[in-house]
Amino acid sequence: MLWSSLGLWNWRSSVRFSSLLGVIALCHLLSGCDAFAGFPQDQKVEGPFLISESWLYVEPDSPLEVSARGIQRLHLVVDADLYQANSLVANEGVEDPGGLFGLRDAKGNLVVPEVTLVAEDGSTVTLSPASNMFPYSGGLTVGMGLFNGVYEPAPPFPDGVQRFTSFRVRSNQPLSVEYFWWSVDRHPDMFQ
Q1: Residue 19 sits in which domain range?
Q2: Pair 162, 105 in one domain
């Protein structure tokens, strides 16, 4: 009787330990320690940057490379203590597609950034707020991308565009950006 109860205890302890490891792994993934990792096109543009109503022109150290098969976004990484994802606020700004994935500042103002990428040939691509992410504890992003709507697939970048040499950014309200992150957010290889 003692051995069977001991065996049952060991089995339960093993399940609890496995469950605990699973929860720890899930928390690690959700904390986003590696939320922006894995593709050669990913690139960090160091900040900080203060964004205003006037265009700020940014030229990264190396061009932003376009992935042929992935969906990419330029993430504006901000401090989650200073801003809140508008997508978490009850339906405010939803009538404006840019407002849905904008931010709310400490005063409750809707903050909607605008980004225009400039390709090697001088052509431009305008990005809209398309997502909010929490890549690490205390961090929040506005993912700027090609966006047709919440339930529509993101369109690809124009044919022939392989890299962007610069971009410009502005916002309807002052916005403090810690850094920019050019990231492959979705790619067929992620689901294999």
Answers
A1: 1-31
A2: yes
